[in-house]
Design brief:
heterodimer; A: mainly alpha; 77% helix; B: mainly alpha
Chain lengths: 110, 84
């Protein structure tokens, strides 16, 4: 069994890579991809803590043990919705300004 | 260039801080009798079961509806404007 600290370190590293991408990259699509990486770090935490809970509480009901996985499914669905709306917004912004550089899109009006 | 290095350093500091905090915690050991492998059946029970702490499928359906609305909104936003 892989120790819980390894999973947490992997999760924090993924989160940090995503955060660096959000802070430093200018292409809006790359920023969206970085946000997805950060969401996946949170998903790893959900699944890992759920497995950990089921190991520490062997007599817990099966549904309680799988709660982290179910929340991960919700999170993936929300991420898909977020990307759909984000890409559509960037498409419109590109038509308007001919760029998706997040440093140049600095006004929230058409 | 300088701001990029500053951002990288701040993110690295955050990662190191969090990793240090995790390493300081005395996590309970995995026990031999516990089973860490969650099966698809257990996930299905959590989502479609009839118990008090089961039945999360309705929420997933609502999120599916949200996804559908988001996709329709995305298509509406991305639609070409008609020329008059």
């Amino acid at each position: 069994m892989i120790p819980i600290t390894y999973w947490l370190i992997l999760s924090f590293l993924l989160f940090s890579i995503g955060a660096y991408g959000v802070l430093s990259r200018k292409n809006a699509i790359v920023v969206l991809m970085s946000i997805e990486i950060m969401l996946n770090a949170a998903n790893i935490n959900f699944v890992m803590f759920s497995s950990y809970y089921s190991v520490l509480h062997p007599t817990a009901p099966a549904a309680q043990e799988a709660l982290g996985q179910v929340f991960t499914l919700f999170s993936i669905a929300i991420a898909a919705a977020e990307v759909a709306v984000g890409l559509a917004i960037f498409l419109v912004v590109y038509r308007r300004y001919k760029t998706i550089d997040v440093d140049k899109i600095n006004i929230l009006r058409w | 260039m300088r701001t990029t290095v500053l951002k990288a350093l701040s993110v690295l500091a955050f990662a190191l801080l969090m990793i240090g905090a995790v390493l300081q915690v005395d996590w309970p050991e995995w026990t031999a009798e516990g089973d860490a492998n969650i099966t698809n059946e257990e996930v299905g029970q959590a989502m479609f079961g009839q118990g008090d702490d089961q039945g999360y499928a309705l929420v997933l359906f609502l999120i599916g509806l949200l996804l559908l609305v988001a996709l329709l909104g995305g298509i509406f936003l991305a639609k070409e404007e008609e020329k008059e």
